[in-house]
């Protein structure tokens, strides 16, 4: 199976917020074959929240020095194309994110904003993993403890996973992958 661990950093939470960082890892047969970290400037007219900028640690001026969104998408698709035959409906990446609905929606909006309707050429829309929802389900089943919250940072502490710079997409996705692997170990023991 081809897995895509993916995280985005954005200028806010609205549908018109801009992706400014896309980071991830592509794992094939339990081996990471590529890590990537792509940055871009916000699209014209993007919603930009001051609190979001504070969270990601960038100013608008710093973000505007990055590459254009069109170039970022080309870079992303070039990476995807190394591992997926975009014309084979059975050869797709399965996305794993800590908050899958958010990252999927932001990536989908990013593609659409750039008039590219081919995200599904690379990513399986039917099969995905949200570690946040996985944690919640396992808490309900009594397999994982209920912690003070279900933020990625909290689960990293629980599983003793290093997360030095939360809200940097590359750091977050490294941590998400480790949390996912730890959850898999817990499930294996629970069998």
From TrEMBL:
The UniProt GO MF terms for this protein read:
3'-5' exonuclease activity; nucleic acid binding
Instruction: Note the Gene3D superfamilies from the entry.
Output: Ribonuclease H-like superfamily/Ribonuclease H
- Entry's CDD domains? DEDDh
Exonuclease domain location, by residue?
A: 2-189
InterPro entries per the UniProt record, alphabetical: Ribonucl_H, RNaseH-like_sf, RNaseH_sf
What is the superkingdom listed in this entry's lineage? Bacteria
Q: Which keywords does this chain's UniProt record carry?
A: Exonuclease, Hydrolase, Nuclease
Task: Please give the PANTHER family that the UniProt record associates with this protein.
Answer: DNA POLYMERASE III SUBUNIT EPSILON, PROTEIN NEN2
Protein name as it appears in the record: Exonuclease
């Amino acid at each position: 199976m081809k897995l895509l661990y993916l995280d985005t950093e954005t200028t806010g939470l609205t549908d018109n917020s801009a992706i400014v960082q896309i980071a991830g890892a592509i794992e094939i047969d339990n081996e990471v074959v590529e890590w990537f970290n792509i940055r871009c400037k916000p699209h014209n007219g993007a919603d930009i929240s001051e609190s979001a900028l504070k969270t990601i640690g960038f100013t608008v001026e710093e973000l505007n020095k990055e590459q254009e969104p069109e170039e970022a998408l080309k870079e992303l698709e070039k990476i995807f194309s190394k591992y997926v035959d975009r014309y084979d409906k059975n050869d797709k990446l399965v996305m794993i994110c800590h908050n899958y609905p958010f990252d999927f929606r932001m990536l989908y909006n990013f593609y659409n904003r750039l008039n590219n309707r081919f995200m599904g050429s690379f990513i399986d829309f039917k099969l995905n993993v949200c570690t946040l929802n996985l944690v919640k389900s396992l808490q309900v089943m009594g397999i994982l403890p209920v912690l003070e919250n279900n933020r990625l940072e909290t689960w990293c502490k629980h599983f003793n996973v290093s997360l030095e710079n939360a809200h940097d997409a590359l750091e977050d996705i490294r941590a998400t992958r480790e949390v996912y692997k730890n959850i898999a170990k817990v499930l294996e023991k629970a069998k």
